Amino acid sequence: MASATRNLVAAALVHGVLLYGSAIQASPNATYPWLATEPNSTVESRVPVPTGFHRVPVPPRSFAAWLRGLPVKPGRPPVHLFDGSLKSNQEAHHLVLDVDVGRRDRQQCADAVIRLRAEYLRVVGKEAEICFRFTNGSPARWTDWRDGMRPHNHGGKTEWSKTQTPDASYASFRRYLDIVFVYAGTHSLERELQRVADPRRIEAGDVFVEGGFPGHAVLVLDVAEDEAGRRAVLLGQSFMPAQEIHMLRGPGAHPWYVITGDHPLTTPQWDFPAGALRRFATQGCPGRP
Fold first, then answer.
1. What is the pTM (predicted TM-score) of this model?
2. From CA 172, how far away is CA 16, in angstroms rounded?
3. 3-state SS string over 174-197?
4. What does the pLDDT look like over 84-112, one tens digit per residue?
5. Cα separation of 120 and 265, whole Å?
6. CA-to-CA distance for 115 and 101, rounded, in angstroms?
7. 207 has which bridge partners?
8. Domain-by-domain residue ranges, the chain?
9. Alpha carbons 66 and 257: distance in angstroms, whole number
């Protein structure tokens, strides 16, 4: 990261400046608070299952149910970058989710996964579980930020101290996420998530992640199953530069990927090795420091 960018981020850490460039207003949509209205189209309503499959039942208010209800933009619009320009590769997506990307190059691949996980936990009242590790291993808890604490880096270590007035608003939450986007990534996400022992039992909310600089991460948005127990999944991603979250095209005529074991996964913009499937723990920040 360039020194000028680090200086900007440092100022944001101290003063709580909103990096999106404009105030985020509270939304009347309690389930997807970045929206002003209820979605007209969702992942579930827009994407039928493959022949012979049915959607796996999921508990109400679960992460899987919340992902299945994510809002989708009408038709198949192009994917835009954070600055409004078009993504160079317009052949990778099946549809575009109706999720804002922000006005800076922040919400990239791992950040999109973090964003959706954090939004869900906040909506269902599990704010104490909103915690992600920075690349240096330090935990960043939303409840600390909410209570007015801010991170300060000293010799590669991160310390938190109270410098701001407590603020539990959605705008404050988005400022917290912006800082996480800067200091976390695929390397830290891979380390804090738990490896899935049997990928054949893949679940919505699981993550294919290959940590690196760069690495990549895609989120499992929905899961279907056939009578033989085979599971098929829908995958969502952001990429570099930061861009709208989109559902990936599948290897065939539909966007579903059939998962039959711990095998490499080929997506339109990344090849994941075997063993790349990870899962969020029930408590935030359980990974190695």
1. 0.89
2. 8
3. HHHHHHHHHHCCHHHHHHHCEECC
4. 999 999 999 999 999 999 999 999 999 99
5. 26
6. 10
7. 219, 278
8. 13-279
9. 20
